[in-house]
Hints:
Shape: globular
CATH superfamily of the largest domain: ATP-grasp fold, B domain
CATH class of the largest domain: Alpha Beta
Number of helices: 15
Number of domains: 3
Largest sheet: 8 strands, antiparallel
Bound molecules: adenosine-5'-diphosphate, magnesium ion
CATH architecture of the largest domain: 2-Layer Sandwich
Strand content: 15-25%
Strand order of the largest sheet: 13-12-9-10-11-14-21-19
Structural class: alpha+beta
Helix content: 25-40%
Number of strands: 22
Amino acid sequence: MIKKVLIANRGEIACRVIRGCRELGIKSVAIFSEADRESLHVKIADEAVCVGAGSNTDSYLNLANVLMACQISGAEAVHPGYGYFSERANFAVALESLGIKFVGPPTAAIESMGDKASAKKAAVLANCPVVPGSEGAVPNDTEALKVAEEIGYPVLLKAVAGGGGRGIRRVDSPDELSGLWKTAQAEAQASFGSGEMLIEKFVVAPRHVEIQVIGDSFGNMVYLGERECSIQNLRHQKLVEEAPYADLPDDVRRAMGESAVRVAQSVGYQNAGTVEFLVDSENKFYFLEMNTRLQVEHPVTEEITGIDLVHLMLKIASGERLPITQEDVTLSGHAIEARITAQDPDKDFAPSTGCITGWRAPGGRGVRMETHCYAGFSVSPFYDPLLAKLIVRGRDRAEAVRKLESALHEFEVEGIATNIPFLRRLIASEGYRTGQFDTSFVPRFLSGEAV
Ligand code: ADP
Ligand code: ADP
Ligand code: MG
């Protein structure tokens, strides 16, 4: 078993992984920026190394500094969390050259799934349905117009290197295309250093349903049910996720699970990963992309399967066999996660920064908090606004929704604005409570069209 792991991340996910290490008797090394000196992840790790000034490029994304921290600390392995270096093949390669294990998939699998065009190709080869669209990247807007004409409007322009909802634009008619192509491409170039775009059919009012997979280095792989993530903000970023998707027929769940495993195995995947799908109103599913890392919303899967994903990731990276087969995986109860962010609902969700003067977190049976925040902690402008993930578990969806309502009622943060008041309203809506929603729900809720 690996004895010492460096966590190349910050915030709640660094805390999550550090805890997982401690539970397995593995020493943990945190890295932190000068702005994160007081973050909980620094306090709960066995050791901590400063990797630079506040900005991400100076610290968490400073490859030389992070690699130096690995060497100084003598870590045998690195867990990348999500974001940052988690899906950068060059990071895994650099670690390998230093003889340090990467807690994640093989480099080739990261590369195959790293861009949406090659990921879709892999899915087609693995006999998995994909959203109809261009074959690979489209060179320019003239070409995009042709493809859009063929597949029919509305269409979606998407950054090939995309992630986190950036570089995505919906186009409803030919006269909009050129303008939106330019803005999407500029956003893609700025966010990912690549302006490569693809185009696909916009699936109207779909559900976002994703499958968690995990495999070992001996060729064993299982799927751990699905997560429903259709509650997304205006920028296609997930806000509230749940597992299971109560209305998914068992045969579709099985078909999606088996497709996900097939796609993952076709690129030699190992360790934890997520295959994302869109599901239309007739329960037809289409491959979207594969995220080759631990996902933000992984706790809802843990809650309904009883499986600790971080433990499994560390064991698999240590060379252990997957301790379960598909028959061992059973889904029980219902779990929901709400992302608590430092964003002001009264100011168009603008980021809010400064000192958290009061922090009263919810508790009770079936309530789980994942956070790096506490009263006295300062939220800096450098990072993602995620403050905490509030996860609840109930016997069924109705009980989980009630628990979430109750927990959000308890949750009070002072000193900075958060999205908690908005989440309370959203959860209380008819559409959310009855589970009758799709990816267009939040935009329609915000405009007053949906209640
Ligand atoms: P997931 O697909 O795991 O739900 P999202 O789609 O919400 O993740 O986010 C996509 C990306 O946004 C992540 O891979 C990460 O790059 C970034 N991200 C989201 N939250 C954070 C955070 N708290 N810190 C750093 N990066 C984040
Ligand atoms: P990212 O890498 O930014 O996560 P995804 O391809 O996973 O990008 O898409 C993010 C979200 O955008 C999806 O969850 C869905 O809500 C929406 N979306 C993506 N592709 C389509 C599509 N073809 N039709 C309709 N909505 C889509
Ligand atoms: Mg996605």
